[in-house]
Automatic annotation (TrEMBL), chains A, B:
InterPro entries: HD_domain, YfbR/HDDC2
Stored SUPFAM superfamilies: HD-domain/PDEase-like
Keywords: Hydrolase, Metal-binding
Superkingdom, taxonomy of origin: Bacteria
Species, as recorded: Pseudothioclava arenosa
Protein name from the UniProt record: Hydrolase
PANTHER family listed in its UniProt record: 5'-DEOXYNUCLEOTIDASE HDDC2
Domain spans labelled HD: 15-182
Length: 199, 199
């Protein structure tokens, strides 16, 4: 076996661990928490299906690759729910530093040229500046909202989320890359928050 | 909300059910069966990482899309393990017909143009004739072998698989699209079968 293939196998076997990282969002029927591996699959499918919602300059194939990789750092760091600690935990500097170190380690398992390429893709996603990254990030915020609603509340129950909180933490980020999608999602979730007097 | 977006949401929410379809292969640590959603994520990542193993005429972005979709029919039909019934169950005509009907139903949830496009992509994968489909199918056979080995045997234990059986049912299909990968995988799994006198 070539060393190159050995390194690629090592990376792919390491990546499998993402299936054991659990998230705050339940799967569709509420029976268990979603894991970050299957979450990444959902998001790649969202990018494929919602391609016609993408703004100018979005490269869909690149967005799909980004979404396949975007959560690998959670193998080392875990998933930090967006509604934990009143929304403050998710973008804490210590967390961002730990994620950056995890990315160096995990993509560092690959052959050097390939590791650098995929690390750059992850960094582009995190920086959230290019049209492709903004589209991908917006999808990453959309899917848990639809899943929570489908499961009857999911992590909104656990963290006592109100609609204004959701709009600030999540809605604004969805609207940045997917304005029409956010309008549609907001209309869908409104009755859930209205029924609980969390408007 | 536009009808188009409603149809896309309906498809994406239906697709979530793939996370509840379990496979014969365990996840990396052997703690539970893999589900077909996270399996699809793994395969898309394999296509991305093993792109330099692809033969002439393979479109990697198309292979990734194919692999994201390839198991959706299991929402209706379930996963049929490749080693069940001595390998006979997997390509039975009744199963293939049920999968085709499932594809019509599931991709039929999408807007007509998009549903037709993704159905054609699934059919291309199933036909296993284009270089892209052969590459994708070969990956679909590779990942469970590496996972079984990593988990200490996995579905090879359950179905009493020998190396000649594995070579016939799986190895030949891997070698068709990924000859170098099959050589490397075969070298890795040989000790497991040798230790059990299943050569
Ligand atoms: Ca995420």
């Amino acid at each position: 076996m070539t060393t190159r293939l050995e390194q690629q196998f090592a990376f792919l076997l390491e990546a499998e661990k993402l299936k054991s990282v659990t998230r705050a969002t339940p799967i569709h029927d509420g029976s268990r928490p979603e894991n970050s591996g299957e979450h990444s699959w959902s998001l790649a499918l969202y990018a494929l299906v919602l391609a016609d919602q993408a703004g100018h300059g979005v490269d869909i194939s690149r967005a799909i690759r980004m979404l396949l990789l975007h959560d690998l750092v959670e193998i080392d760091v875990g998933d930090v729910p967006i509604h934990a600690q009143g929304g403050a935990a998710h973008d804490a500097p210590a967390l961002l530093a730990a994620e950056a170190a995890a990315a160096e380690r995990i993509f560092g398992l690959l052959p050097e040229d390939q590791g650098a390429e995929l690390l750059a893709l992850w960094q582009e996603f995190e920086a959230n500046e290019t049209p492709t990254a903004v589209f991908a990030k917006s999808l990453d915020r959309t899917q848990p909202v639809l899943l929570n609603l489908r499961a009857g509340g999911g992590s909104w129950e656990e963290f006592n989320v109100t609609l204004p909180q959701l709009e600030a933490r999540v809605g604004a980020k969805i609207a940045r890359g997917l304005p029409e999608v956010w309008q549609a999602v907001r209309a869908r979730i409104l009755p859930w928050f209205a029924a609980r007097e969390r408007l």
